[in-house]
Amino acid sequence: MRIYIKYMVSIRCKMIVKQELEKLGIEYGIVDLGEVEIRYSLEQENYEKLRIALLKVGLELMDNKKAVLIERIKNTIIEMIHYEDDFPLIKNSEYLSNKLNQSYNYLANIFSEASGINLEQYIIAHKIEKVKELIIYDELNLTEISYKLGYKSVSHLSSQFKKITGLTPSFFKEIKEKRRNASEQ
Q1: What is 121-184's CATH number, 1.10.10.60, 3.40.50.1170, 3.30.70.1350, 3.30.70.100?
Q2: 1-63: what fold?
Q3: Sign of dihedral through CA atoms 46, 30, 100, 70?
Q4: Which helix H or strand E contains 31, and what residues bound it?
Q5: Which of 96, 98, 100, 102 is nearest to 81 (CA)?
Q6: 128: part of which helix (H) or strand (E)?
Q7: Distance (Å, rounded) from C-alpha 128 to C-alpha 133?
Q8: Residues 76-112, buried b or exposed e (16+ Cβ, 10 A)?
Q9: pLDDT tens digits along 85-115
Q10: What pLDDT is attached to residue 84?
Q11: Which pTM value belongs to this model?
């Protein structure tokens, strides 16, 4: 049996879910972002206890199939951008279709209908957040960041970054440096 969990978007969330399952004595298999494989069918009482326990830590069990799919789309994008070592070499549309076993058009329509933005905008927003994170960590230069996140060029990354944040990546880095220097003084 699979259960789907909303707002489960990090490794820390996975740890919390595992702890709650263990507290309730629920045997589980794989715990992924947004979903858990339960080894047996949950009785209503245990399902309700799990639902309440997860709500207390800011997570929600999902029953609606459309909501489950949207959450799986979001988690797949988050995993692709934030947790993969390198960005996939295939198109975003192919990646999502392959991972979720659905046509990209169907996924895109469901997603935009429910969230109010299109799938590509959501992907770009997450890529820019990852770019900011990598700039702050200061381990990679813009060329390396651009390659790591699947941009065709640094100028493409820079134009998307400016469009989303209103700043160039270089200016963003300068601001970070000024704040660090100010806090050190």
Answers
A1: 1.10.10.60
A2: Alpha-Beta Plaits (3.30.70)
A3: positive
A4: strand 28-32
A5: 96
A6: helix 119-137
A7: 9
A8: bbbebbbeeeebeeeebbebbbebbebebeebbebbe
A9: 777 778 889 999 999 999 999 999 999 998 8
A10: 78
A11: 0.73
